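Retry 2 of 3 after timeout on previous attempt. Resubmitting structure tokens to design endpoint.
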């Protein structure tokens, strides 16, 4: 059925379960399904009677002539193109229109209509293309444009944005156009032999899948060259990457779901359906692995939990963590001894040793026939192989230069000294005791920018834990000023980010990602905690919990009635303090993200805050 242009060597052991994707459940629709859009386990579809429904036939709204439908990745709202109009409706409440979106053309004499739309994966942007060739990037607070992408060449019939925020991809007839989101200019474009039927970025932004009639192409987004080509007898459409980007699903011949193993470069399963498949995709924003598809009157969920994980990514992450600790200078190590122990040659040797150790440990949990003394590595198809049975080519890796690592480790030592000084000062003032502990650390992360250049990001983390009641937030408290432990952390953040070790990296215009993790314990909230709106009014704001994207609403009217709301406002309180008090961040471009954790246990130890600052391309 399929011919692959390039085939990788097969490993000595098979780790794939036969037919790993299995039928899970289905939901029948009363009328024929014409299109659907999903986010996590939330899903909306449009039927031929004009109804827009959830997967259990709960009505969202009823509109005639719907051309495109997109569910906000938080699952809280639905964007609809119908009859030349763009409207946003609530997912939760029937027939509640949130926004009637009108974007007038620059030339008011022209008439135009919206053609395609797509949300960014973090739910902060909505991309809309128009019949006059303009693409607007709108914020999802007001659905008004932040900026326009316009080159006057063709109408974009489909749009996609990479999760790392680097790229917007647009299909224009037989052409694919790639925009650099940050620079708001075309990164590259190319012509294909036929018009693409679908586009999808991998979750890490390193790949772009493009389906054509009879073909799947996978592009490397660093070089924009074709990395893999698959040829099919029938038409293909609806490409989608799974959560770790090891697998791609697509529709073939309108009645088959095909699942491919990307590193292995082969089809691992074909599911033949009983009717025409309208669309299919891996679920997004969830830790569980499922594919969702539809027949004419049915929404189908396919359990994909048995798909093998991307072992190479697991191993590399563990090795990076271990090598980051290994390369640090110990307290009792002389400068000469450190130089002898840590250099480029010894690091390469240590990485090789750790890879074998970590891979072998992982193999013992995966391979049923592993012998006690066998050692393993992973080949380039992500298959386990005996370490002495194959000579693997040297891996192509992004290596952080040792001199940069050593700069970061010296800064971390100074960071810890500053932390100790602040903590001692707070203890002397009787604001905290030894029962409050603060951890700080730095890390340099290799990355690639939107132009394909190697860059180094600098990450600085601050977190605390307290085991003393009265030193952290009081039960139901969310104001950072009312937590001695949190304010001790804020003092350390301000002093160190404005100090000599770090201030130099916060150049004007530098991009900084700031993740704030707010926690709440399991103490129930009885009644309503008043919220006076001091940090703003929050309606359907995106946030992350356990790695999954959700939406949060906290207003003066709603107050705080749940622990997730309480944890969320704690993150916002910290954001408010940082933005007003840390001067080095007042000239940079800051991307804030709220993450929350809600514990089942009760007590001050589960009411805490963590802050992570990632300076993009810090050492340029």
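Retry 2 succeeded. Sequence:
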């Amino acid at each position: 059925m399929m011919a692959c242009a390039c085939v990788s060597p097969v490993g000595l052991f098979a780790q794939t379960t036969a037919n790993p994707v299995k039928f899970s459940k289905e939901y029948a629709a009363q009328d024929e399904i014409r299109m659907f859009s999903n986010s996590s386990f939330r899903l909306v579809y449009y039927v031929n009677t004009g109804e827009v429904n959830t997967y259990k036939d709960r009505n969202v709204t009823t509109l005639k002539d719907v051309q495109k439908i997109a569910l906000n990745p938080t699952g809280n709202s639905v964007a609809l193109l119908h009859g030349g109009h763009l409207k946003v409706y609530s997912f939760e409440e029937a027939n509640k229109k949130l926004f009637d979106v009108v974007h007038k053309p620059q030339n008011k004499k022209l008439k135009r209509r919206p053609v395609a739309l797509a949300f960014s994966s973090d739910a902060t942007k909505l991309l809309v293309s128009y019949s006059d060739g303009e693409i607007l990037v709108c914020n999802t607070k007001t659905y008004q444009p932040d900026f326009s992408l316009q080159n006057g060449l063709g109408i974009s019939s489909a749009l996609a944005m990479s999760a790392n925020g680097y790229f917007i991809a647009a299909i224009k007839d037989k052409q694919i156009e790639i925009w650099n989101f940050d620079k708001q200019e075309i990164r590259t474009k190319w012509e294909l032999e036929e018009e693409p039927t679908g586009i999808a970025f991998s979750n890490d932004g390193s790949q772009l899948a493009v389906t054509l009639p009879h073909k799947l192409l996978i592009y490397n987004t660093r070089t924009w060259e074709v990395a893999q080509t698959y040829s099919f007898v029938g038409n293909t459409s609806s490409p989608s990457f799974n959560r770790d980007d090891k697998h791609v699903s697509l529709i073939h011949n309108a009645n088959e779901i095909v699942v491919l193993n990307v590193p292995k470069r082969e089809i691992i399963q074909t599911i033949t359906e009983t009717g025409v498949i309208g669309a299919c995709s891996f679920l997004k924003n969830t830790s569980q692995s499922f594919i969702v598809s539809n027949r004419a009157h049915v929404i189908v969920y396919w359990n994909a939990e048995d798909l093998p994980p991307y072992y190479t990514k697991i191993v590399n992450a563990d090795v990076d963590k271990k090598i980051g600790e290994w390369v640090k200078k110990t307290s009792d190590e002389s400068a000469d001894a450190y130089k002898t122990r840590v250099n480029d040659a010894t690091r390469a040797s240590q990485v090789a040793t750790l890879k074998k150790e970590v891979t072998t440990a992982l193999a013992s949990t995966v391979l049923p026939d592993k012998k006690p003394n066998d050692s393993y590595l992973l080949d380039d198809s992500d298959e386990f192989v005996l370490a002495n049975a194959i000579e693997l080519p040297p891996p192509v890796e992004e290596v952080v230069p040792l001199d940069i690592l050593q700069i970061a480790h010296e800064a971390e030592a100074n960071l810890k000294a500053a932390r100790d000084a602040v903590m001692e000062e707070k203890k002397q003032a009787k604001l905290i005791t030894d029962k409050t502990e603060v951890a700080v650390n730095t890390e340099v992360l290799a990355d690639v920018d939107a132009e394909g250049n190697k860059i180094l990001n600098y990450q600085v983390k601050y977190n605390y834990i307290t085991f003393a009641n009265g030193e952290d937030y009081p039960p139901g408290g969310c104001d950072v000023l009312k937590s001695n432990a949190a304010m001790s952390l804020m003092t350390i953040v301000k002093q160190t980010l404005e100090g000599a070790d770090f201030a130099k990296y916060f150049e004007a215009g530098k991009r900084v990602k700031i993740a704030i993790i707010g926690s709440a314990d399991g103490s129930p909230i009885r009644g309503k905690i008043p919220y006076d709106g001091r940090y703003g009014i929050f309606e359907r704001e995106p946030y992350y919990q356990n790695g999954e994207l959700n939406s949060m609403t906290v207003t003066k009217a709603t107050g705080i009635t749940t622990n997730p709301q309480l944890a969320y406002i704690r993150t916002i309180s910290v954001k408010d303090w940082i933005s007003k008090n840390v001067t080095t961040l007042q000239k940079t471009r800051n991307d804030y993200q709220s993450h929350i954790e809600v514990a089942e246990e009760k007590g001050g130890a589960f009411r805490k805050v963590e802050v992570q600052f990632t300076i993009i391309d810090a050492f340029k």
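Attempt log closed. The longest helix spans residues 402-428.
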